[in-house]
Design goal:
Low-confidence stretches: 118-126
Number of strands: 7
CATH topology: OB fold (Dihydrolipoamide Acetyltransferase, E2P)
Number of domains: 1
Largest sheet: 5 strands, mixed, barrel
Structural class: mainly beta
CATH architecture: Beta Barrel
Number of helices: 1
Order of helices and strands: EEEEHEEE
Strand content: over 45%
CATH class: Mainly Beta
Amino acid sequence: MQKITICGNLTADPTLNEREWVDKESGEILKASVCNFTVAVDNGYGEHKNTQYFRVNVWRTFGEKCAEILKKGHQVLVHGSIALRNYVDKNNNIRAVMEIRPDEIQFLNGKSMKVDEQPATETDGMPY
């Protein structure tokens, strides 16, 4: 498993959506909320300064709290695992995106939150 830690600013307000998937064992349709946001991280300085962008996916109660607290421009410290996700775009091309699935997010206004601060059932059965 690969871990990453980034520190940067949100490029836009987070979006909160509800996702559905079918449980492979029971065939039941499951739903969960997911919060998505992008963090811009500056590297270097002066003429050599560049910015890298990282997509962050935060599920369930953890994601709902992020959507409630975070806004465009807020600075965050994100620690989590890296996941590569494939999808088909509107032109039927296969695309890949690298995402961070956080274990901990520190809101640099003094608050922080970890995945394990929510009930264990909140992280069970996620579709990733």
